[in-house]
Design brief:
By secondary structure, this protein is of the alpha/beta class. It is built from 10 helices and 13 strands. The protein has one domain: 3-Layer(aba) Sandwich (Rossmann fold), CATH 3.40.50. The longest helix is centred in the first third of the chain and has 22 residues. It binds nicotinamide-adenine-dinucleotide and uridine-5'-diphosphate (2 copies). GO terms for molecular function: NAD+ binding; UDP-glucuronate decarboxylase activity.
């Protein structure tokens, strides 16, 4: 359909590991490249016995010479806590990583998909966000290493496409949640669930009125597969997300209801440059990919809660 041997950078991460599974299920061979910066061996341990699965420990900021038929470029820390831990490395991963993977794709003449982000819209002044909105991004703030790194990566993808006729695809992924989120990466869904399960206070940043739209990981992966298989003329960028918008107070209440937890809410200062509102307009994905999210928020949260319940029972739980 679209190449047999597929490279997934960041394949040991949250979204990447689900993507590897789905590609194997479709009959592809998968080369997973990851430096385990935020990913985990456990995410892909069950795939290692599969003869069609190969794992390579490698940092995409260095050149990579392999032979593949298609590339999904997901390597990049994604949560604010992780990407701000070593911001220079974050920018290097986005920019040098994109250059290397584009160079690889150019040499092999294969399709390459970039996992971009809704963060390219920054703290948006247009709502909901459509792909033709250029965004409202602080170039010098604590989130800039991620936002501007991803914006520069999009520029590189478009320029390799225009200059070298490289077939590219850009997905602007909005907040995604589900099993294999990192329990300590500070993202809101994982934080609230772990806090609720442990009976600890639910930490609301700011007044909790800020909004996000949460897409279950299965739906996100489905969109990435459809985008890779889409018409050669279609490069994107295309929004991939769930348009159901919720405030952080709404999501806290839902997590409390679904876990039956008696945790109390605790209000903390809002981090710098935290976007106030975010919701994707997904009409382009509906039209071009015949895609829209299918998993209801309650169902997705219940599956994520079940995952964290198991994780917290494990003796070596990484929830410290
Ligand atoms: P993640 O942190 O779980 O996965 C990223 C993976 O990339 C990890 O396995 C990590 O070890 C690896 N990695 C990081 N730097 C690397 C490097 N220099 N070389 C090789 N591997 C490296 O994050 P995720 O949530 O799975 O995100 C995957 C991609 O999707 C990222 O590019 C992210 O920016 C994008 N995205 C995610 C979301 C979301 O809500 N999860 C939203 C928008 C965009
Ligand atoms: N590259 C790579 N694997 C390849 C081909 C290229 O990692 O199979 C890297 C290479 O290190 C280079 C980058 O991709 O720095 C960009 O390649 P491109 O051919 O676009 O640029 P050039 O090599 O001409 O600078
Ligand atoms: N947030 C919160 N409590 C937490 C973690 C996050 O209220 O324990 C808020 C955060 O300030 C932001 C929203 O939840 O407004 C989403 O944060 P996340 O880091 O998950 O994603 P991003 O900000 O990158 O969209």
């Amino acid at each position: 359909m679209y190449g047999h041997r597929v490279l997934v950078t960041g394949g040991a991460g949250f979204i990447g590991s689900h993507l590897c599974e789905r590609l194997l299920a479709q009959g592809c061979e998968v080369l997973c490249v990851d430096n385990f910066y935020t990913g985990a061996r456990e995410h892909i341990a069950h795939l290692i016995g599969d003869p069609r699965f190969e794992l390579l420990r490698h940092d995409v900021t260095f050149p990579l010479y392999v032979e593949v038929d298609a590339i999904y470029n997901l390597a990049c820390p994604a949560s604010p806590v992780h990407y701000q831990f070593d911001p220079v490395q974050t920018t290097k991963t986005s920019v040098h990583g994109a250059i290397n993977m584009l160079g690889l794709a150019k040499r092999l003449k294969v399709k390459i998909l970039q996992a971009s982000t809704s963060e390219v819209y920054g703290d948006p002044k247009v709502h909901p966000q459509q792909e033709d909105y250029w965004g409202h991004v602080n170039p010098i703030g604590p989130r800039s290493c991620y936002d501007e790194g991803k914006r520069c990566a999009e520029t590189l993808f478009m320029d390799y496409h225009r200059q070298h006729k490289l077939p590219i695809k850009i997905a602007r992924i909005f907040n995604t949640y589900g099993p294999r989120m990192h329990p300590a990466d500070g993202r809101v869904v994982s934080n609230f669930i772990v806090q609720a399960l442990k009976g600890e206070p639910i930490t609301i940043f700011g007044d909790g009125q800020q909004t996000r739209a949460f897409c279950f990981v299965e739906d996100t992966v489905d969109a990435l597969l459809r985008l890779m298989a889409s018409s050669p003329d279609f490069t994107g960028p295309v929004n991939v997300g769930n348009p159901q918008e919720l405030s952080m107070l709404d999501i806290a209440q839902l997590v409390l209801d679904l876990t039956g937890s008696r945790s109390k809410l605790e209000f903390r200062p809002l981090p710098a440059d935290d976007p106030c509102r975010r919701r994707p307009d997904i009409s382009l994905a509906q039209r071009m990919l015949q895609w829209e999210p299918k998993v209801e928020l309650r169902d997705g949260l219940l599956r994520t809660i079940a995952y964290f319940e198991e994780l917290l029972k494990a003796p070596a739980a990484k929830c410290g």
